[in-house]
Design brief:
Layout: E1 2-10, E2 13-19, H1 35-47, H2 51-54, H3 60-63, E3 73-82, E4 85-94, E5 101-106, E6 109-112, H4 116-127, H5 131-137
Antiparallel strand pairs: 1-2, 1-3, 3-4, 4-5, 5-6
């Protein structure tokens, strides 16, 4: 279960934090308010990519906030639970071609990172699902 997500400098989200409860959660807002960006942030936190990025429709630099002020990094922090254990994953994208970072914590103890691939592999193992299956069976892109 996803408990919360925090988006910093992620697309149009300067500093947004959303909390989720058990059951169905709904994001409501006007067109362009950033609803899809939240879902992309969740996917990115878990797998280090999301469909538009994976299909090269956008670049990593494009997810770092550009307006009203260009930012140097974007950060996504996701809290979730699997098998009664709490996890926190954070992924940081740096502009200007610096190395991106990711860390995964289990009950506040670092268990993977800072290599992004290491974090992704560990999450795939925890969830028993990879990005390909997630994007085909769970994630539904807008207008698909």
């Amino acid at each position: 279960m996803i408990n919360s997500i925090k988006l910093e400098n992620w697309k149009t989200h300067l500093n947004s934090e959303l909390f989720f409860s058990q059951g169905t959660n709904v994001l409501i807002g006007k067109m362009g308010a950033g609803k899809s960006s939240v879902v992309e942030g969740i996917c990115f936190a878990l797998f280090g990519t999301f469909p538009q990025l994976n299909q090269k429709k956008v670049s990593l630099d494009e997810v770092v906030m550009q307006k009203p002020v260009k930012k140097e990094f974007a950060k996504v922090t996701l809290n979730f639970q699997v098998n009664n254990k709490s996890y926190l994953v954070e992924r940081i994208i740096f502009s200007a071609n610096k190395s991106n970072q990711a860390n995964l914590y289990e009950n506040s103890k670092l268990i993977a990172g800072p290599k992004t691939s290491e974090v992704t592999q560990r999450i795939e193992s925890l969830l028993s699902i990879d990005f390909d299956l997630f994007s085909r069976a769970i994630y539904c892109e807008q207008n698909d």
